Amino acid sequence: MPNIPLTFDTSWLDPLAERMQEDGPWDKWELFKLALEAEEAMAVREFDQLQSLKYLPLLSPFPHQLQTAEKVLLEMRGRAILADEVGLGKTIEAGLIMKEYMVRGLAKKILVLVPASLVIQWTKELYQKFGIAAVAQKKEYMWRQHDVVVASIDTAKRDPHRRHVLDIDYDMLIIDEAHKLKNKRTRNYQFVKEIRKKYCLLLTATPIQNEMDELYNLINLLKPGHLGHNATFSSNYVEGKRQSKNSEKLREEIEKVMIRNKRSDGGIQFTSRRVQSVPIQLSAEEMALYDGVTRFVREQYHTGITGGAGGFNSLSLITLQREVCSSKEAAFMTLYNMHQRTAENSVMREQIMELVEMIKQIDTHSKAAKTVELIQDINDKVIIFTEYRATQNYLQKYLHDHGITSVPFRGGFKRSKKDWMTDLFQNRAQVLIATEAGGEGINLQFCNQVINYDMPWNPMRVEQRIGRVHRLGQKRDVHIHNLSTVGTIEEHILNLLYEKIDLFEMVIGELDDIVERLSLNHSLEENLIQIIMDSRSSREMALKLDNMGHAIRAIRQTQARTSSPLSEAADQ
Amino acid sequence: MQQEQVRQFVERYLASFSAHIVESHPDYLTVKLPVEVDKDIGNRPFYWSWVEKMNIAYQPLVMTFAFHPDRIPEGKRAEYLHLGAARMQQIFASTQKHGRFLCMYEQKGGLLGGTRRSTPLVPWLGLNLKVSLLCDKKRDILLYLGINLHNPQVVHDFTSFLFSLPLTPTIPDYFYTLDRRITVPQALSMAEKTVADVLELEDQTWAMEAKARLQEELEILSAYYEELARREPESAEKEEDEQEVEENVEIIPEVEAPAAPTPPPVEQVQTFDEYRASGGRILDFLRANGIHETPKEEVNQKEWRKSTPDEERQRRMDELTWQYEPRIEVQFINGGLFYLSTTPPSNSTPKGRNTSKSPVSGRIL
Question: From A41, which residue of chain B is nearest by alpha-carbon distance?
Fold first, then answer.
């Protein structure tokens, strides 16, 4: 072809000449054929056809993921912002694109920069899902020794690592949680800008959080000048911080570098959530304990606030209040600790002893008994979430006594132990009792039954719990059972979260935004605490919670109305 | 490659090394790896360097390969083999290593009529080549060339012709070889010419499009940097002013010291794997190859400075060229000498030039 540089491999000339001279050693005819067949199996016959799928027989990507990979390859030429909404599988898209370039021999040296907490998960996923032997960067020599390196951006930007990274020509650079690079004056931004790269993928679910400039900065990282100079961009497209003009044109420009799949686009089928409250009637003794603790907590809380003597810090009081909703075992530990810290013969100590005595009197376990019933009815894998270790331990024993197999799961477990427990749960045990919803990358989609044994007061945590099982890959409807003890705070909270603000129907981003707008200084959780502690009667509490629910609903509705053209542009 | 073909491929591969098949089940295969295979796909270079150094008997690896993801045998440490499996890629690499150079003679069956007259064999150089068209995308064209070394001439699809012949690694009785009138380097020149001819007939659109894209991107880029220079002639000072607004942790050190010189690249004598295979210590290798750990006292965050707009622009231009610039690479797959009495059909162009998807080996992979 005219004017196209051509290199012709001649490295075989000498070895062949040598063999001709010596008449050997010659290879076997059969292996010669096999080598040729292998080459034929791997040859890329078409410019524009995904090759990677035939190398990934165990992966079944969703149509939107395949389309995204194709678009990045064919139209965006390997430089793109992948901005799918949470849970649509940006990692899969990035993996597909990465594999495609590797299979075509166009990318060998690849750097994946992610938050430190996701390094292992990325490494593992690339290997398990894409057969890509990525290594988590630990030692300095690894930058050069390995082709595919996953590292945290905070490590990479520091010497001696930075020097290696800026010295290497990367065939491909992938950055997860790229919205952290929205500010162009940060060191991270500058650092990424200096990396030499051929293809580049920026992954983020929130390309714009507050200002138009954020998107501009991201695009400038990917393709400097694509939207012109900052000032030109502003005068052409920006009306206000969150407002755009010439939306049509802007949308076109953004489409060239960004792909954003949304849940609402259809084609992406999420199964339904079926939420159910399970009312639990406490026995008289249990109710007495609950009332006793509640009274104690409020008294102490107010003494503490008004500067009274010997008050406990409000945090442990609130904890106690929550624990008593969960289980008497959880409350007992905190009471015990409080007892240790109070002076002998003090009134407080006496009060605590009284409560402890009440715990000793109780021999019913209404909540646990109901749970066993529920599990037996479900007759399938179940995940139980609780906030407290004491409840977790107790439940495990209780279930065991009733012939139900269970495994524990805690945030403090090492990664390998988490995997082991997940495996046990999948293959041996009926129930997983978890104290944390986090544990990114733990796949529990094989289970579709969740029991919220107690309710976190922070709605984000509830969403994270459900998010563990209700995600792409879940094939059945997800059943959520919320245990709610009648006549307690738990009942009120559940009422607020579930009935008033439809928490369970929201997506993560939406909730985040609402919480942020609702309370400029206090989190929703703190608001709840205030209401609960300050209300003199349960009726007053119910009323205040009700008002809060209304406020949230109102915000949610205005938000739906005022979504700016910009976010629409970004959403296209 | 369908799973059945994966299995056949693996069986043929193992058979070429006379591997001992421990168990052959419809779903899986258990095999004792022969030495060469073990070295290529066993992932134990340290073990091998140890065995060889100590001159002791080796323990063969026993592996079980499963061919159906849903039917992995229980109680065995089986691994699922498919086209994309890392092990399969190792097996491919192993065939390429052991199936590179051949010397074969055509063996005409029977010697009809009992003639004891000697028959001449014509020397051919067979070359299997992979021609890759590269820009930001890639396509491969496989060429199977045969070059007559006695009577200079090039034919296409030579290898598929070879597959139809009875060939033997030793020269059969009553045959003699004609002399080579051209050298292998001369044959290479003919091959180069042939590849150029093939490319001439190829659709050029991909390269033109790539060049146009490159041009377009470069124009956007220069427009941007020109505007940048116009609007922010003293961008450095301006940036500094802005930075004071930033929180401390994130501020970029704005130090005018030149970037620290990077350690000179030390010539890499051998690859890490070779080195390890020869029994060397990792640490020694790293030291010898200049991949050193920077001593703490040399670590200085301040040595780094931001690129100037000019440097940035240059870097970006290099990236674009790297990404889009069309280029062609011709790789040698394998090849060898073939002494033939039958004359191959003189194909002057490769079969089904543009859509050539049928493999010469006659097997659908």
Answer: B365
Q: Is residue B103 part of a domain?
A: no
- Name the domain count of chain B: 1
A197 close to B (CB below 8 A)? yes
Say whether residue B87 is in contact with chain A using an 8 A CB cutoff: no
Answer whether residue A511 is part of any domain. yes
Q: Indicate if A342 and A451 belong to the same structural domain.
A: no
Q: Which of residues 30-69 of A touch B (CB under 8 A)?
A: 30-48, 54-58
**Model pTM greater than 0.95?**
no
**CB distance A141–B239 less than 8 Å?**
no
pLDDT per position as a tens digit, B90-114: 999 999 999 999 999 998 765 554 5
A261, A82 Cβ separation under 8 angstroms:
no
In a domain, residue A386? The reply is yes
**Cα–Cα distance between A427 and B7 in angstroms, integer?**
30
d(CA B54, CA A477): 62
A456 shares its domain with A356:
no
Q: Which of A215, A206, A154 is nearest to A182 (CA)?
A: A215
Three-state SS for A450-477 is EEECCCCCCHHHHHHHHHHHCCCCCCCC
Same domain? A372 vs A294: no
Instruction: Report the alpha-carbon distance of residue A92 to residue A67 in Å, rounded.
Output: 12
| Neighbour count for residue A57 (Cβ, 10 Å) | 16
Comparing CB atoms, the residue among B169, B293, B306 nearest residue A140 is B293
Q: Which residues of B touch A193 (CB under 8 A)?
A: 307, 312
Is residue B353 within 8 angstroms of chain A, CB to CB? no
Domain residues for B59?
Answer: 3-98
In chain B, which among 57-76 make CB contacts under 8 A with chain A?
69
Q: Tens digit of pLDDT for each residue in B189-242?
A: 999 999 999 999 998 999 999 999 999 999 999 999 988 888 877 554 444 444
A15 reaches B (C-beta below 8 A): yes
pLDDT, one tens digit per residue, over B39-78 is 999 989 899 989 889 888 888 899 999 998 888 888 788 8
Domain membership flag for residue A51: no
Reported ipTM: the value is: 0.80
Write out the residue range of the structural domain in which residue A509 sits.
273-278+364-571
Contact check, Cβ <8 Å, A159/B69:
no
Residue A49: inside a domain, yes or no? Answer: no
Report how far apart, in Å, the C-alpha atoms of A262 and of each of A60, A67, A206, A270, A527 are: 19, 13, 12, 12, 32
Size of interface A-B (CB pairs under 8 A): 267
